[in-house]
Design a protein that fits this description.
It is built from no helices and 10 strands. By secondary structure, the chain is mainly β. The strands form 2 sheets. Strands 2-10-9-4-5-6 form a 6-stranded mixed β-sheet, with no helix packed on it. The protein is globular, with a radius of gyration of 13 Å.
Amino acid sequence: QVHLVESGGGLVQPGGSLTLSCEVSGIKFSIRPMAWYRQHLGQERELVATIAGAGRTKYEEDVKDRFTISRDNAKNTVYLQMNNLKPEDTAVYYCNVDRTYLSVHPWGKGTLVNVSS
């Protein structure tokens, strides 16, 4: 059974930083392309950043140069370092496999990021 547990969200002022973590179990993590997604209130979940098993990364245009996705295959954990946060980054953030290549697993609870002054 696959488990995805996101953490690290919170309230932060515009321009601030947060690092999200996602612990993954139940899959062969090291070979799976992983991704972070976010869901704004009332909207569909959108892809934010992806990382291949070997580490190649891709970002959506509006987070490029501000967010960094990384992974620790020894810890089965994927991270999202978020800098220079903007109010429009406010959303619930989720991790899962990269839906570009794989069917997603059941979603975890996500972690809320609230960017507000």
